[in-house]
UniProtKB/TrEMBL annotation:
Predominant location category: membrane
Top-level division of the source organism's lineage: Bacteria
Pfam families, A to Z: SusD-like_3, SusD_RagB
UniProt-listed InterPro entries: SusD-like_N, SusD_RagB_dom, TPR-like_helical_dom_sf
UniProt keyword Signal, yes or no: yes
Family of the protein in this entry: Belongs to the SusD family.
Coiled-coil segments on the chain, per record: none
Keywords of the record: Cell outer membrane, Membrane, Signal
Domain SusD-like N-terminal: 100-221
Any Gene Ontology CC annotation: cell outer membrane
Protein name from the UniProt record: RagB/SusD family nutrient uptake outer membrane protein
Native source species: Spirosoma arboris
Domain RagB/SusD: start-end pairs: 261-560
Subcellular localization: Cell outer membrane
Amino acid sequence: MKNKLFIILTVLLGACTGDFLEIKPKGQTFYESLTNKQGVNLLLTGAYADIDGVNGTVGDGWASAVTNWVFGGVSSDDAYKGSNSGDQNAINAVEGFFSDAQNLYVSQHWTPLYDGVVRCNDVLKALKSATDMTDAEKKLVEGQARFLRAHYYFELTKVHGKVPYIDENTTNPTVVPNDHVLWPEMEADFKMAANALPSRWSDKGRATQWAAKTYLARIYMFQKKFQLAKDLLQDVYSNGGFSLMPSYEQNYMIKTINNAESIFEIQYAVNDGFPNSPNAGLGESICGPSFIGSSGFYLPTHSLVSAYRVSADGLPLLDDTYSADDILPFATNGSSVLYKGPVDPRLDHTVGRPGVPFLDWGIHQGLSWVRDPSNAGPYNNKKNMFLKSEQGALSNTTGVRVFPNANNYRLFKLSNVIVWLAECEAEVGSLQNATTLINVIRNRAKNSNVVRFADGTPAANYKVEPYPTTFPTKDYALNAIRYESRLEFAMEGIRFFELVRWGIVGPVMNNYLAVEGTILPYNKGKVFNVGQHEIWPIPQRQIDISVKDGKSVLTQNPGY
C-alpha cells in the first residue's frame, strides 16, 4: 500500500508542502478528475503512503518516523540520541527536555502528520461524489481513511497534546483552535473503522477491524477507560485469530514479517527504483550502526541493559530506582562478557552488547562499533537491524543511506494486546488473570531461542521464569506489568509515552537523568519538569499563521 509514487499525486493535489495550514485551493477540475473509483483509490494509496511518517517534503522524516525513535525512544530511559553531540543537535533538546517552540524536530514532527490528515480528508471528500462505487465499496474506503486519520491524530496528540481538528468538512483550517484533546474524534474514527473493515485483506498493510479495535483500546487506555479497553483487547486476544510466534526474536526479522503474531505492520520495500529506498523506513535511515557506515543514532542506554538483570529464580528485579551500581560491565575489545549474573534472554535479542554475537555480523566489537562512546555508551540497537547475509538484497543499495531495509515496523502485535490486557485486568479485573497473561509473555521468552556463540554455547547466563504465584496486590501487579512492557517492547518507540500514560514519567526520568549525568557528561544537569515535559510545544510557525481577527487561535502548551 505504501508507494511514494503517490507523493507526486499529492503534490498535484496541493496538499501540505511546508505548513499544514498553507493549503493551496483545490478547483473543480480536481474533484471532477478524482471523484470516481479509480481516483478515490489513488487518493487512499496516497493516504497510506504517509503512514511511515515520511512524506517526502520535510527532511527525511526522522522527526515524524512512525517508529517514534526520537520522541518515544530517545526522550525516554531506553535510548541515547547516539552519533556525536553536534550531529542533529535539535534532538539534544528533545532528549534533554530543553526544547522550545522553534525546535526543528518539533516542527518537522507536526507537518508530515498533518499532511497525512489532509490526505485522508481528501479521500473522504472525493468519496462523497464518486458515483461509480457501491455503498459497500465506499464503506471499505471510508473505514481505511478514518483509521489512518485517527492514527495521524494520535501521533500528533502524543507529542503535542491539544491540536486543532481538521476534517473533510473544514473550510478554513487557519481559524480552528486547539481547545481540547481529540479523544472523541479519534474514538469515532476507530469505531467506524472497526465496524467497516474486514478481519483480513489479501493486501498486506491495509487496516483491518482487529487493528482498529486494538487502536481504539489503546486510545481508551490513554484515557484510563480500562473496562472499555479490556473488552476490546479480550475480543482481539480471543477471537482475532492471532498467535504468538514461538521465539521472541522472530518479531524482529525480515524473514518473518507479517507473521501470525502481527496485527498491523508498516510495510517496507527496499531497492524499488527510488534513491535511498524511501519506502524502507527512511525515517530511521540514520539509526543504523556506525560499523556498517551508518550514522549511529538511537542506541540503548545503560539503564535499559540493567533492566534485564534477573534474580536467581529468573524473575525481574523490579527495582524502583536505577543507580550507577547497576551498570553491567562490558568488554571493550569484544573478547568476553564480563557480567556473569543471570539476565533475561530478551536482552541480547534487543541490544548489541560487546562480546556477544550481533546477529550474523560476528562478535560485537565494543566501543569501536559505536560512533562516539562518550556520547552514547557501548551498545547498539538490534531490533531494527538486518542480517549481514541480507545486506544489499534486503537493504538499501542506492544513494547515500546504507541502513534502510525491508524489516517492517510492527505497530501492533499480539504481545502488545496481551500486556495491555494484563494491565486492564490489574486495573479493573482479576489479578489472577493479569498474572496468567504476563506469564504467557514470560513463558514465550523462556522457550525462545537464545543468542549463542559459534560453538553453540549460550552467550550469557540466560534465565527467565514465569511468576510462580498470583500477583499479591494491584500495586505489585502494575509494577510487574510495566516492567514487562519495558522488557518486551524496548527500543520500539513506545517507552516515553507509556511512562506518561502511567503517570510515573517524572520520578523515572529524573532518577535516570541524575544517574546518567554521572556517567555521560552531556547528561549532567538535565531535569524533567512535571506538568510541562510530558508533551512538547506547538510549533511557533503554526501559532504565527493560525490567526483570526489579528490573534492566534492556537494556544501554546504550558511552560513553552
